Amino acid sequence: MNISPDFMRRIAGAAAAETLPRFRSQGAVVNKLSGGFDPVTEADREAERAIRALIGAEFPDHGILGEEHGSENLASRHVWVIDPIDGTRAFISGLPVWGTLVGLTVDGDAVAGLMSQPFTGELFYANADGAFYEGPGGPRKLTARKTTKLEDATLFTTTPALFKGDARSRFDLFETKVQLSRYGTDCYAFAMVAAGTVDIVADPGLKPYDIVALIPIIEKAGGVITTFDGRPAENGGDILAAATPELHEAAMAALRG
What we know:
Blueprint: H1 5-19, E1 29-31, E2 39-41, H2 42-58, E3 63-66, E4 70-72, E5 78-86, H3 88-92, E6 99-106, E7 109-117, E8 122-127, E9 130-134, E10 140-141, E11 154-157, H4 166-175, E12 180-183, H5 187-195, E13 200-206, H6 208-211, H7 214-220, E14 224-227, E15 237-242, H8 245-256
Parallel strand pairs: 3-5, 11-12, 11-13
Antiparallel strand pairs: 1-2, 3-4, 5-6, 6-7, 7-8, 8-9, 9-10, 13-15, 14-15
C-alpha cells in the first residue's frame, strides 16, 4: 500500500496542534525512569493520542506501537510505530531539534514514515514514491550525499556517553577518522542524512519507535541504515545510518575497531 502525502500532512498537523502550544511553555515534566532521567511531557502523551485517533479512523484494522500509550493489534500485517516527540530532552530545553516520528511497517519491514518538526515548519516523509521534504525553500525530493570515505564525512551521535565500555573506546577512535563530528539532535540528524547535509549517524540503544519512521526516509533517499553489525534496523538496537553503501561499510568496520 502507498500512504498518501495528504495523510502524512494530516498526522503532522494533528501532532503539531498538541506539541507547538506546549513548546517553550515551561510545562510539567515527568521522569519515567527511577535512578536516571527519562522525561515525558503532556505534549508527548496528547500528541500520540491525536495520532492514534487519526490512524484508527483511517486504518481501523492496523496495529499501533506507541512510546507513550502502548500497543494494540500487533498481530496485524500493518503496524504503525509512533514516537510523538523524539528528542524530549531537546523539547524541554527549548531547542527545535525534536521531531514527531510516525512509521508504518508491513510484515515487519518499514515502508513509509515521517519526521515532522513543526516549529521550523519542516516535514520529511517517505512512501512508495520516494523520500520528500516540505518546508522553507519549497518542496523537493530528498537525496543523500555521495560521500564514500570517512575522512570526508560528517558524523553525528546523540552523545558519546551512550557508548559503554569498549564500545566507547572504539567510538572515540572512529571519531578521529571523520572530517567533522557533532552531538545531539536525535531524529533530526537522521533526517539530515536523507537531506544530504550529514553523512553518518551512529546511535546505540534505540527503540523501534526511535527509528522505524526514519528507515524509509533514509533508504528512499539513497542511504543505508542498519544495526552496527548490519542487521535490519526495524527492531531498534545500535543503529548506524550512512549516506552511501561504501561509507556504511567503512563506518561498520570502524565501529568494530
